[in-house]
Every structure is written in C-alpha cells, then in structure tokens.
Design goal:
The protein is mostly helical. The chain is built from twelve helices and two strands. Helix 8 runs antiparallel to helix 9. The relative contact order is 0.09. This is Retrotransposon Copia-like N-terminal domain-containing protein.
C-alpha cells in the first residue's frame, strides 16, 4: 500500500515562531529599538523585511527506495517548484556573516537565518520520504542542497553501472503473461532509465520495442501500424493497443 508523507506544519511551529521573533525583536518590551535584534541562541541579527518560511502542506504518495527515484523526484520537484524553493537544492546557503566585524561580534546575517530555517524545514520533509537504508546514506548531509546532490550522485552511479544491462533489456522485454497495461509501463520504465543516463530512444525505437515484445495475437495490429509508425506517437500507439 502506498504511504502518504505529509509536509506537515504541526511539527514545526517552534521554527516558525523563531522566525517571527527574529523579525520583531528589534523592539523590546519598553518600546526601545535596537540596531541588531537578538537571533538564534541570543546572537544579534541584522534586520530587514521579514519573510515567513513556507510551511509545507502537501502529500507525496511514495516513499523513496532504490527503485523509484524518477517517480519520487517528479513529485518532490513539483512540490519544491510550486513553493518557489528550487534555490534550496540548486544554490549554496547565504553567508552567515556579511563581514569580519559581524563575525567578531557574532552578528548573524538575517538572510542566512531565514535561509537556514526554510532549508531545515525542507531537509526534514525530504528525509521523511525515504526508506531507512537511504536515510543512512544521508548521514552527514545537513542541507537540502547536500541531500539532493547526494541522491542525484547515488542514483546516477546506480544507473551508470547498469547501462549495458539497460541497453540490452528493451530487446529482451516480452509481454508474456503480463497484462498489456503492465507491459507498456514496463517498457516505459526501461526507456526512462536509459534516458536518465543520456541514452534517449526515439519515438520510433520506443514503439518498435513495444511491438517486439508482443505475442502473435497482436500481429495484425503491428503489421497495420508498422507501415505508418512515423505518424503515431508512443502515447497514441499505447492507447490504440489498449483499445484493441
């Protein structure tokens, strides 16, 4: 059964409250304004217009394992893009201190503080959507960028080590006793695995792979379609097969 992983807001109210505290700490209870309000662990923080962190409220239907990275990545990237957080997996964090004087006085850059809070919310969600064996691989990854790069490297190497196997696999795929729908998905998964390593099959080759694994009961369909294969997309061929 598929598991739902929620980008829950309930687990993180203290972090959200800390951000609000940073933004409003310039004024103390007596109304006096301080040039550097207190931030994380009491360190002074440079002020600017406060931006609330994005609190995720989105479900992801699958847990990342060693075999479903492409499916997981598609869902995760959609959520990250939808919340305008792509920079957290593409760019390094902001500078913690803007200059040596700030470092000497432990004055933390507010942009860094806000970045860290948002980044850790994203880190927590990413980790919550993985199986335990992959979590072990993430030990030592402290930011969303580090986690993302580690996953990309791990799965790219995994696919690269099996590229010859994947090149041969489309030729050996047979429908056999599989349902037609399951067979078509199997072909697509194999084609997608090749594509992740730069081995992109043309529309014609994809369709040819489908036809090659069909049993003799589909010969009439294959013969009638093969003469016009350039006129069909993979999706159209799949739809025609399923409707036949």
């Amino acid at each position: 059964m598929a598991r739902n992983f929620n980008m829950v807001s309930e687990q993180f109210p203290p972090l959200g409250m800390n951000m609000a505290t940073i933004a409003s700490a310039a004024t103390n209870s007596s109304g006096a304004t301080h040039p550097y309000p207190s931030g994380v662990n009491g360190a002074p923080v440079r002020t600017r217009t406060h931006q609330e962190p994005v609190i995720f409220n989105h479900n992801i239907s699958i847990c990342l394992n060693d075999h479903n990275f492409l499916l997981w990545k598609q869902q995760v990237l959609a959520a990250i893009r939808g919340n305008q957080l792509l920079k957290y997996i593409k760019e390094p964090p902001r500078a913690e201190f803007l200059n040596d004087a700030d470092r000497d006085n432990n004055r933390i850059n507010l942009m860094y503080s806000e970045w860290e809070v948002q980044d850790q919310l994203l880190v927590s969600w990413l980790l919550s959507s993985m199986i335990e064996s992959l979590l072990t691989r993430m030990v030592g990854c402290n930011s969303s960028l580090q986690i993302w790069n580690s996953l990309e490297k791990h799965f790219t190497l995994q696919v690269s080590s099996k590229i010859m196997e994947f090149r041969i696999k489309p030729q050996n795929l047979k429908k056999g006793s599989m349902s037609l729908n399951k067979y078509l998905l199997k072909v697509k998964q194999t084609v997608d695995l090749l594509a992740t390593n730069g081995e992109v099959l043309s529309n014609r080759d994809h369709v040819a792979t489908i036809f090659n694994g069909l049993s003799s009961e589909y010969d009439t369909f294959v013969i009638s379609s093969d003469t016009r294969i350039e006129n069909y997309t993979v999706g159209e061929i799949e739809a025609l097969l399923l409707a036949s």
